[in-house]
Amino acid sequence: MRKIILSIIGVLLIILSVLFAKNLIANKNKPKPVREKVVKTVFVDTVVNGNVKIVIPANGSLVAKRRVELYAEVQGVFKPSNVLFKPGQKYSKGQALIRIDASEYYASVQSAKSNLYNTIAAIMPDLRLDFPDVYQKWLAYLNGFDLNKSTPELPKLTSDKENYFITGRGIVSSYYNVKNLEQRLSKYTITAPFTGILTEALVTEGSLIRSGQKLGEFIDPTIYEMEVALSKTYASLLKVGEPVKLNNLDKTETYKGVVSRVNGSIDATTQTITAYIEVRDESLKEGMYLEANLDAKEEQDVIEIDRNLLLENNQVFVIRDSILDIIDAKPIYFSDTKVVLKDIPNGTVILKKSVPGAYAGMLVKPFKNSENNQN
């Protein structure tokens, strides 16, 4: 039985060997497939050097150019008024923003003014006898003295004797003490320095206001500034008065601005220079985020292409006799999507769109309807 099994296995091995040999002979006689040469069709552009205006993009939020932080210099109770002290409330120039109760302090001011009046009145007999030439002017001063109005300026002292006499009676020091009290009394009323709008209110009517307490913020809503940080490369290009185009993030609204100020120093940390763009428009609000395009300068004899066409080591693909080649280029300016190049000869045929897997020596076919005009 064992001999029969070995015989069968031997016959099977012989048959398999014959079949394998026939298969090898058949494959050897088959011709090898010819690999087709693939020629990619590419979009090309012919270089025509010209002038390209360098536009620097920047962005930032608007801040009112004229803004005032309101602080109290005196203490008292916030008196109610016809106009509520609330955010969004408009005030005209000179209109009272806040009135603090000053009845107690006002009484002390009136007392000081009365003392000054009495002191001057007490010396009038002496002036009439010893200084008859100045008596009339001091009499006129007393007649024009009104306790309900601001204290008038003292008559001008014309001689040393008069000066010694008036100063010796303490009239000059009393006068300046009264003026100091009147000056402080004026701080119980805070008026609008310009026509504007209240953007922040930290107190309400009837609350106790303390000296040094912040009360709110007041801005002029007709003029705004946007602060932008630009590379130090453009420090010498920015000029005050240059027009600037601005737009919102949705690109639905455009505004006209102007460079109002340029910082004289460069930030040592970021190596940027700060410029301020002034813009006026009734629809603008403080805090709005805008994009600006600043016209820096105009470069001559350059072209502008997509950034993805610039290779490493500042090189670009060119086409010579349907074969890709690489030449050097000199980048002048980079934007988000474009790059401005110099030193590329006129008439040079370059790629208009990037080609995946492109390499020097690659065989290509220019697209017939490709526009041979510089973008």
From TrEMBL:
Q: Which GO terms describe its cellular component?
A: efflux pump complex
InterPro entries given in the database record? MdtA-like_BSH (IPR058625)
Q: Which domain of life is it from?
A: Bacteria
**Residue ranges annotated for the Multidrug resistance protein MdtA-like barrel-sandwich hybrid domain, each copy included:** 67-215
Where would you find the membrane-spanning parts of this chain? none
One GO molecular function term of this record is: efflux transmembrane transporter activity
Q: Please report a single Pfam family linked to this protein.
A: BSH_RND
PANTHER family annotated for this entry? HLYD FAMILY OF SECRETION PROTEINS, MULTIDRUG RESISTANCE PROTEIN MDTA
**Protein name in the entry:** Multidrug efflux pump subunit AcrA (Membrane-fusion protein)
The organism is Algibacter luteus
